[in-house]
């Protein structure tokens, strides 16, 4: 097509939507704070609903809320009129999405919320709409043009909805004090789940750890290192505390006179270590940053296990 430039179109769309997002961010105020507190205080679930593109966005927000510690579910407004209203409880909060706010399919959900005094939060661009007037609280989308121009297909408006949903979810996450370990409970699989596993999930237990006393002759220490096949041996003090480590690199560098030395004489003191509660992703970064392949796992300074980089790789952490 003569005169068509895809990059220019793409940049125009992104600029329109970015400008709308900035406007929405600048406009956040007391209503947003009240919405977060209302959702935080909810004893049941956050029930999201919306038709068409707003419904698709509502499903995504539902998933984001649920994965970050806020019980949530999606109820299709058309299905709600045919029995699914029974899924909405009196301890729930309804979060309804509609740019125009005058979607007839939402009428039964709105009426049901009023009948049972269920709080209703509206995300809409029209506070004077049916939804806006019926809502307990309105989160108003800015008056921004759709990126499709005269075609007016939902683009900017759905971007705003999804971003506002993210803002609510993150605000609730921080309000709850939700942590990465909490997040792992909801994401046990995949790359993200692997990163959020703990060292205790992956480590070799104490009985498998290559450990010798400080006074152990190096020939005996080498035997333990060979049997455990991790390329290192940890060195412990009389009280069982980890005080050093001997690697296969140390053996090569100190080959002459090796047989006449003890593990304590050859060891590198104060080796890097982690606890069983350390996130696997953090342990992987520690290994990478220090260019090491093995970390001893300690509790109160004493070894409880050992983690090899292969354990991390096998779990899909890096």
First-to-last CA distance: 45 Å
Largest sheet: 5 strands, parallel
Beta-strand portion reads: 15-25%
What is the tally of beta strands? 13
Q: Quick one: CATH class of the largest domain?
A: Alpha Beta
- CATH architect. name of the largest domain: 3-Layer(aba) Sandwich
Report the CATH superfamily of the largest domain. Glucose-6-phosphate isomerase like protein, domain 1
One letter per element, helices H and strands E, the order comes to HHEHEHEHEHEHHHHEEHEEHHEEHEEH
Shape: elongated
The low-pLDDT segments are none
The neighbouring-strand order within the major sheet is 2-1-3-4-5
Mean pLDDT: 88
Please indicate the count of domains.
Answer: 2
The quaternary structure here is single chain
Count of helical stretches: 15
Content-based structural category: alpha/beta
Q: Could you tell me the CATH topology label of the largest domain.
A: Rossmann fold
- Gyration radius (Cα, Å) is 29 Å
- Percent helix, as a range, is 40-55%
